[in-house]
Every structure is written in C-alpha cells, then in structure tokens.
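Quarterly update from the structural biology core.
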Amino acid sequence: MIGTDRKDHRVRVELDEPRWLTDGEQESWRAYLRGSRYLEEALDRDLQAHGLQLTEYEILSMLSESGGARLRMSELADLVVQSRSRLTHTAARLEKRGWVERQSCLSDRRGVELVLTDEGRERLVEMSKAHVESVRHHLLDVMTREEFAALGVAMGKVRDAALGVHQAVVAEACAEAELEADLDEAELALSREG
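Predicted structure, tokenized:
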C-alpha cells in the first residue's frame, strides 16, 4: 500500500490489519462516493442538453481564467485532473468545433499550449449561465451556506493531500521515462558501433 509522510513523500505502508471504517465513517464515505458521482452525472447531463460535456466546459473555463486565455497542455491536465492523453482527445474535439487552438508555447517552443478562441469564449459565456444554475440547483440549494463552506474546507484538504501524492507519482514517472530514454539512446549507440 502506498501513502505519504507529513512532507508528502511517497512511502510504503504495510498494515497487518486494516483500520476498518466505523459504521458512521462507512455511511459518510458511501454518501460521498455516491453523492459526488450523482452530482458529476447531473452537471454533465445538464451541459449535454446544450451540446457540451462537463470535462469540455471545465477546460474552456480554466483557459478563460488564465492569463492570455492559454495554458500549457501539461499544466491544464493537472488543473482539470485528467491524464495528458485524455486531455489531448478532449482538446481535439474542442479544436474541431473551433473553440480552442493548439499553439507552440510562447515561453518554450518545444511545449504546446491550448488557446481559447473568440468562438470558444462566446460559447463558454452562453454555457456558463446554464452551468452555474445547474451547480446551484444540484449542490448549493441542497445545503446551508455553512455546510457548503465546510465542504469546501474538507475537500480542499483532500485535494491538497492528493496533489502531493500526484506530484510525487508524476515526478517518479518522469524520472523513469528519462531513464528509459537514456537507456534507449545508449542501446542505439551500441547497435551502431556493433
């Protein structure tokens, strides 16, 4: 089992006996799981009625809030918690509609940025009205302001803890990929010599 220490370093944790959830913890855990899935499904369904998926809306929204309406694909993938592969596919759908464009990074020509187009911004403005009403209807209207604020605090803690683990996993994967590339290069050099 993998966990993190207090400094968010990945550590292996071996447990002889799991720390089973109490009945109350189990009830809360299952309420969270089902509630979050139903919520995402409802928000997605409401946007699909207007021809847009929740994942697509989130990408357009993140771009609109960034400086210059552009973000590196890798940074955007982290913001919307999608794999780079999945983001690439979603970006391709949005690009076909003319809502985004892929361009070379302004700061590093090797990287790729996703850029919100004027048409994409117009579409986002139209959809944001429906989306905010959906969020209010399915989430904010079913709880008090205090409950919603507490939810924000709690999920902020979960996000921050998960982000630390995510960054460690990504760093480890990048290091492994770099090592594999170095080995491939060395193997290629040896094959040329032989």
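The beta strands are 2-4, 10-12, 70-72, 100-104, 112-116.
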